[in-house]
Design goal:
The complex is a heterodimer of chains A (225) and B (219). Chain A is an all-alpha fold. Chain A has ten helices and no strands. Chain A is elongated and about 60 Å long. Chain B has a single domain, classed as Rossmann fold (3-Layer(aba) Sandwich), CATH 3.40.50.300. Chain B has six helices and nine strands; from the N terminus they run E-E-E-H-E-E-H-E-H-H-H-E-H-E-E. Chain B is α/β, with parallel strands linked by helices and 219 residues long. Classes of the chains: A mainly alpha (225), B alpha/beta (219).
Chain lengths: 225, 219
Amino acid sequence: MPGLPGAARALMLRDLRLLWRRRGDAFQPALFALLVVVLFALALGGEADTLARVAGAVLWLAVLLAGLLALDTLFRGDAEDGSLEQWMLAPVPLGWLVAVRTFMHWATTALPLLLATPFLAELMHLPRGQLPVLMASLALGTPLLSLLGAVVAALTVGMRRSGILVALLALPLYVPVLVFGAGSVAASAQGLDPIGALLLLAAGLVVALVLAPLAAAAAIRIALN
Amino acid sequence: MIPTDRPAPPLLQARGLRFARNDEPVFGPLDFSVDAGEALLVQGDNGAGKTTLLRVLAGLLRADGGEVDIDGERARASRRSRAIAYLGHLPGLKADLSALENLNFLCGLQGRRRGQLPGHAMAIVGLSGYEDALARQLSAGQKKRLSLARLWLSPAPLWLLDEPYANLDLAGIELVNRMVQAHLRSGGAALVTTHGAYAAPPVRTRLLVLERPVLESAT
């Protein structure tokens, strides 16, 4: 009988293989974020001073929207081909599989974006001194967004088409993350201490790590009923 | 022979099991039991609740009443997942993975019977040579055979087979019957739904006929 680590390994291996088979899709979130940033830069006129002032907020927004775009793929494929049924029948808790799947989804959609952030920040003329704060806030904020998104994606997994509904359900949950994430960068731009906002993000992440997989698992059971 | 005070409890026992959807009964209350080495044929017309019954037994749906015992003990989620292998309408295969990768993943998730290898199981279901074919390239019947290979590898003693004959050719139907026979001989049990058009496996069988509940006609 597989234990928790065995099942997690099998699921991670599967997701990495699937990612490799569709490696074109893997760049989608990063490309979307690039698109948003470039459009913002064009619309704002491309002056370094103007861009630098909004850079933190724009980058956070780009990352959040790219994550929202990728959210629907979290469980939909597995629901449609019956994989979720087999997950529910497995001798490991569904919440554990949901947590592993969410982690892999974060690692394959948000992590590339995180790695591209210094480049995007340069594009937006973000002052170098603010980059560490931006990276720290994104490193704490994106897994939190993924976990919150997992609950929403699980709730809507039983619906044929859920596009706008996912966004409507997710946005109120995303707002505090955005406020504290972009807020930490703004605070450091004004010479204030960003640590309070970062700690709040970290606290949110810890709570979500425990509760979100359980909530998402319960939602999947309801949605597939 | 060691004398036993009482016979072994049935592998699966349902008492007063019923299920309703939006207050309209789908089936039940049903009482039945399946011993090890036995097959239970669940027959009924379309819409009689065969699939729903199997999903309730597998734990995918929650029953509205009644009890299910496995090996004489109340069926909790952990006990169910260890005792039951479910073959449903959806194969649960990832289209972009090869047949063997799909099997390996499902074995990693649900466990594997001691001494059985995925490659061997694929040969048993007649898919040798298709190990590296992507699941999207397989026909519906071949996907069914791959699901049967997954079932064969499962360590669970109780098989719930929902329309296992669908999409299969004559050799495939024969294959299902042989697999069920071998599984029963090794001490397992199987619930097989069918609408009665196919030959049942030549094993000790009980029959459970579901009838479509009379719906109150809309006026």
